[in-house]
Design a protein that fits this description.
The protein is α/β, with parallel strands linked by helices. The chain has ten helices and seven strands.
Length: 289
């Protein structure tokens, strides 16, 4: 059900005390539905890039972590000096977040992000996460920020999204199955990870495959796991011939009933062949799952 090998389950049980399955006289173990849910959370965390020790620690403390305040009440963001202004409500938040990220003050930045628990995820994406990263990227392009600062900022937000993915990607095995990844050469995975969170909220059971997924490996995954939906984030495109071959090979799965969707701003510069039947979006907000 989880795809986790038997020996791995036993190793996790012994090393981390993660589960306590019922043991039978024939040496078999019985796992409850709650056990399976925990294992799926661990697997999602690993797919999102966490180490096993980090994944276990996160899952074990998630119910009492950053979404709860000192009185067990959800915290919401209210900037110093009063309520959020009706115009540009997140500009002050973004400004402060960018300042902290550029100063390598990761703990304070994470604390700010934790205060957004009541803000709808799509709002956080398009009003805070993406604009903040875009601003830092522009500062890097003009020489006002270093590569280290840009990577640090991306890492903090990516870690935050990975934690959100673990908490949201808990749909049952009977749910519709979707897979999210990037083009084989593309290291920009925040868009794919964010899309995985949104699909989980839409009721999909999401397999997040990380960045730079080789086409052979993606094809093998589709053949074996048979997802209904495959989403590929395209932040940077390869040369046209290579991209056409990629589309042609994935298009074969469309003929078998798999919905294949590619998204990214650069797709507007590319002439898409109609015969592929693959869906293309310059902005994921236009995509309806």
């Amino acid at each position: 059900m989880t795809g986790i090998p038997r020996n791995t389950l036993i190793a996790w049980e012994r090393r981390y005390g993660l589960l306590n399955p019922q043991r039978h006289d024939n040496r078999y173990r019985s796992y409850s539905d709650e056990d399976v849910a925990v294992l799926l959370q661990i697997k999602n965390a690993l797919n999102a890039g966490l180490k096993i020790s980090e994944a276990v620690s996160f899952v074990q403390r998630r119910t009492s972590d950053m979404s709860l305040g000192p009185n067990n009440q959800a915290q919401t963001f209210a900037p110093p000096g009063g309520p959020i202004a009706s115009t540009s409500p997140y500009s002050a938040f973004r400004t402060r977040l960018v300042e902290l990220l550029l100063a390598y003050r990761g703990d304070e930045a994470k604390s700010m992000l934790a205060q957004l628990v009541s803000v709808p995820f799509e709002t956080k994406l398009h009003e805070i996460f993406f604009p903040s990263l875009r601003e830092i990227g522009e500062l890097w392009e003009t020489g006002e920020a270093s590569v280290a600062q840009e990577h640090f900022a991306s890492g903090v937000i990516r870690t935050h999204l990975a934690a959100l993915f673990v908490t949201t990607a808990q749909q049952p095995l009977s749910a519709r199955h979707a897979a999210c990844t990037t083009l084989p050469h593309d290291e920009h995975e925040i868009g794919a990870l964010a899309l995985g969170i949104q699909l989980s909220q839409y009721g999909y059971r999401v397999s997040y495959l990380g960045s730079k997924m080789p086409l052979d490996a993606l094809e093998g995954f589709i053949e074996k796991q048979k997802p209904q939906l495959v989403c590929v984030s395209c932040i940077t495109l390869p040369e046209q011939g290579e991209f056409l071959r990629y589309i042609e090979r994935l298009g074969r799965f469309v003929e078998r009933g798999v919905r294949v969707v590619l998204g990214g701003g650069q797709l507007g510069t590319f002439s898409v062949p109609d015969k592929s039947r693959i869906e293309f979006y310059q902005d994921w907000r236009a995509f309806v799952a």
